[in-house]
Amino acid sequence: MTTNTVFPADFLWGGAIAANQTEGAWHEGGRGTSNIDMLPIGDKRMPVKLGQVAQPELDETLYYPSHTGIDFYHRYKDDIALLAEMGLKVFRTSISWSRLYPNGDEETPNPEGIAYYRSLFETCREHGMEVLVTLAHFDMPMGLVTGYGSWRSREMITFFTRYAKTCFEEFGDLVKYWITFNEINIILHSPFSGAGLAFQPGENQKQVTYQAAHHVLVASALTVKMIHEMLPAAQVGCMIAGGSFYPYTSKPADVWQSMLDDHDNTFFIDVQARGYYPSYMKSLLASKGVDAIEMADGDEEILKNTVDFVSFSYYASRTSAHNLDELTANEGNVVKSAKNPYLPTSKWGWVIDPLGLRITMNQLYDRYQKPLFLVENGLGAEDTVAAGGSINDDYRIDYFREHIKAMADGMADGVPLMGYIAWGVIDLVAASTGQMTKRYGMVYVDKNNDGSGSLKRSKKKSFDWYKQVIASNGTVL
Ligand code: BG6
């Protein structure tokens, strides 16, 4: 199908992965253990993710998928060459904080970690791809969790900015685009897997979480300031797990609930893009049973360091209801949502709503008036390898096509969008479930949920489809 393109010539078509979901080699090259390394596949994953285990410990009888990932650590040269064949203009990945600072509180970084990322980014550049780096994509050194209680401690700001400074010094000549924190709002929905928060029995978990969120925001603003000073040619963005909140009905109570849910996620971006807490913050915190956040002298000034662009992931819209507990929940979502009766869902219960992407784009741009960047979009689905080895993932192509069309409509509405980045462009470990069978890739990786498999890479049908989308700058879908 052919459409008129609204995509500028420098539109950044890309593919994304994250270190914790791909690299493996968890104790190689001097890397320290991270919070994500404590997440097994299976039933025991959920309590850890939610921070319900005060001191999570490894259990030898369980399988921990991040320890081996898809072995990207050893195979990155071949993987990047394969992705370059698709014509990606930008490759998005994250840096594993515990590869540079194994325990998190060292004074100096691990040289092997630096050498690894320099080589990875050089490889991307050799293939003509720009690099977009996320400094914190859910993972952090476990030493900061056990030693400091993660982001509940203000000392984290020192450790994070030290780590960020190292990244700018060592990789600033290779990386043009930076994101400080992946899906910053996920700290509220999945505190341990999103931000290393593990709760002590009896404490006010929400109080701890919103205070920790404040520390993250201060660290992010200091990092933005540092980039602007150290790398004036680079661009830095914030990132939200996007997706509008629709009211379940036209009852004012549902409409109000959708506004509250929206505020609870966008306050992060309000701070990062506008430079101050929104006026609704006090009443939002009160509605959660949270006392005022403790601010240190100077924090207000620090928060004025705002980002250059607003990036977001979009997988699905959400539905808010004032009586959510009485309704059927939409299973599988990290962010709580009622079931939307008008939308189909993936096998994992995520609604499929391309128009929701156009709505989200319009809402974000109306609110922030900064360039947007769609840095994650994709469909988690099971793939079947046919007898001859082909993988006909037409369902994934359909999903991408409809979302790219909706994105083009959003751009025609006047929303400036820097680029489109397909998530999990090569199959990787699912963040929410730890499964390999929840596949997003255009490149298939032969690995199963129990860790077995040859790790061989092969192209799916979507590989050639995306290649022509990029080659035609979005005119051939
Ligand atoms: C986003 C994350 O929330 O969604 C990714 O930034 C994640 O890390 C992606 O993989 C899809 O979620 P899941 O749980 O299906 O992997």
TrEMBL record:
One term of GO molecular function: 6-phospho-beta-glucosidase activity
Q: List the GO biological process terms.
A: carbohydrate catabolic process
Task: Decide whether keyword Hydrolase is in the record.
Answer: yes
GO CC terms of this entry: cytosol
| Assigned EC number | 3.2.1.86
Pfam families this protein is in? Glyco_hydro_1 (PF00232)
Active site positions: E376 (nucleophile)
Q: Show the InterPro entries listed in the entry.
A: GH, GH_1_N_CS, Glyco_hydro_1, Glyco_hydro_1_AS
The record's keywords, sorted A to Z, are:
Glycosidase, Hydrolase
Write down the PANTHER family for this protein, in alphabetical order: 6-PHOSPHO-BETA-GLUCOSIDASE ASCB-RELATED (PTHR10353:SF122), GLYCOSYL HYDROLASE (PTHR10353)
Which family is this sequence assigned to?
Belongs to the glycosyl hydrolase 1 family.
Q: Please report the name of this protein according to its UniProt entry.
A: BglH_2 protein
* Species lineage: Bacteria, Bacillati, Bacillota, Bacilli, Lactobacillales
